[in-house]
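Section 5.1 Outputs to date
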Amino acid sequence: MTSNLKKSLFVSLVALGFVAAAGTATAQSANAKSYARVTSNHKMTSTPTSRNVNFTGSNALYTKAGTLRGAKKVASTTTVKKIANSKSSQNNVRAYRVATTNRGSVYYKVVTYDGAYRGWIYGGKVQSVFGGGITAFDTFKNQNLSSLTDTQQKATYKIASPGTANDGKTVTYKQPAWTQYKVGRAITDSSPYANSTFKIDQVGTRTREGDQWVHITDTTNANSPANGWILYSGLKQTEAPVADNAIQINLVDPKDNSKVIKSITVTRDGAKKGTNFGYSDNGNWTISMSDRASILNQIRDALNGTSYTLDTLTTAQIAQIAQTNFGSSVNISVNAVTNIADNALRINFRKPDGTSLKTIDFVKGGATKGTTVGSAVSGSTNWTLSDGDKATIQSQITTALANSGYQLSGGNTLSTSQIDTIARGQYGGQVYLNVVPVTNGISTITPYGKQKDSDDKTLTALKGVSGVYSKTPNGYSIPSEVTQDKFVESPTATGAATPTNRTFNVTAAQLADPNGKDLLTNFLSGIKDAAVRKAAYDGISERFVDQAKSEFISTGLNFDEFSGAPGAAFTEDTATGYVNNSALKTLKSVKIPVFSPDGDFEKVPVTDTNEWVQYTFSAYK
C-alpha cells in the first residue's frame, strides 16, 4: 500500500509539473504576439556618399530593430544627441543596411566612423527617404576655387612640416579626413615630398569642424602619390624672389609662424640689396613715420576678407622690419580676429590716418564660416552681392556712419569696388572700408520776429538785406478808389507824372541822408483832398514800419559757424546755444524815417520833418 501511495504521489507531481509547464508555455506564446517581425533585411546599394547620415536625437540606437523581441539599447537618445552635435568628423555616421517590419516601419543599421557605435535605428516609413531617428548629412562642403584670393590661387605651396603624423596637415588624404567612411590617407609619410611644390585645385570645409581643406597637385607630377587633400594650415607658400630694392613682409598666424596668411612687398627707389630697410637710432632700430603708416595700410588691405587683423605695429615688429635687408623677407605675426560669429562678416571703417573709426557685423542666417559673402560676376573680374544683402549692408553702414562726421570714400552709397571688397570677404572674417571726413554743411537759419509783449502772436520771417536804410516804400501807390478829381491839376510829387500814376518814390541818396527832410512834401502836396492826403501819409508810414519789422541788416554777419555733417540732427539747445553765442543774438532792423507833418492835412502844401530810427531784434526762443 505504501509503495502504491508513493507511486500515486509521484504521478500526481509529474502531472502537476506538466500542467505548470504547459501553463508557462501558453503565457510565453501569448507575449510573443506583441513583437514585430522583420519582413525584409538587405544591404544598401546606393552610392556610399548618399548614405552619410546624422542622428536627429528622437530615437535611440538598438542591437536590432527596437520593436523586435530581444532588442537591447546601444545608445540612448541623450547619447545620440551628443553625437549629432559633435564637432568631430569621427562622429559622422554611415547607414549600410535597411530592414522593414511587418508593421511598415523602416530601420537602418548604422555605424559611426570611429566604430564606437553600431546598431539599428528607426528610420521612418519610407525606405527611399531618411526619417525618424536619422537624417541625410553632408560631411563636407565643397567651395568654388574663387573663394580663395587671387594670391592663394596663383601661389605654389610646400607641406609645412613633412612627416608621418596623422593630424590632417602632415600627410595628404584621399578625401578630407573622416568625411567618408573608411577612406583614409593618400600617403603615410610626406618626407619624400618635402621639396615638392603643389598647386591648389579644390577647396572646401568639413561640416562639423568648419576647418578649411584643400586638394593639392604636384606642379611637376600630375600623378604624384602625394596628390590629395590636406588642411590649408598644413601648407606654406613658396616665396618668389624678392626684388633688390624691396622687402617682403610675410603675415603669419600668431600660433604658427610657418603659416603665411598673406604677404606684402614694400619697395624703395634707389635702395641697394643687402642694406637695411630702417635705421638705428641710439641703438634702437626703427623706421620713419610715413613708412609705418604706409606699411600698416598695406597690411590691412592684404588682410581684407581674412579672419586676421593688425591694428598697430609693435616696437618689436618695427625693429624686425627695420633690420630686414632689401632683397629679403621677414615674418610678422598678425592677430586672429575674435568674437566674430561663424555666420557674420565684420566690416571695419578705416580713417585716413589708418586708425579704426568703428565696426559693424553683417550676420546672415545659415551662412557657414569660411564661405564667401558674395559671388564672382560672370565675365568680369568683380565680385558682387545679392540685392537683399546689398540693401541690408548699405542700411547698416548708413546707420553706423550717421552723425559720425565720416562717410564712405566716394560718397554715402557703396561703390562697385567697395561691394567687391565685401563680396570677397568670408563669414567668420572681416574686411576694411575706407572712410573720409564729411565736408561740413551749413544749416540755413531763418530768424522770425514779432513785437515784444504784443498780443499779436504772428511771427514774421526776417529777411537779411545789405545797406542801412530802408528802400521798400518806393512805388507806394494811391489807393485805386481815389478819383482823379482829388488831385491838383499839376502834380509835382517826385516820380508822379500824371494823376493816374501817383506813386511815392524817393532816391537812395535821399534815404541815405540822415538829415533828409520833406520826403513826403511834394507827394502829399499834389493831392487835393485832405482825407486822401491823410490816408497816403498813414499808408507810407506803415510801409516803412512794416519794412523795419521784417528786414535786418545782414552786412558783416557770419552764418557759416552753424555747420555739421549733412543729415545730422541738432537739438533745440544746440541751436539756441549757437544763436546766443553768435552775431544772431542781437539783430538791427534797417533804418526808417519817422515823419512829423508840419501843420494839418487841410492845408496845402503839407511839409514834414523826419528822423531815422531802427528796431532791435533780441533772440529769446
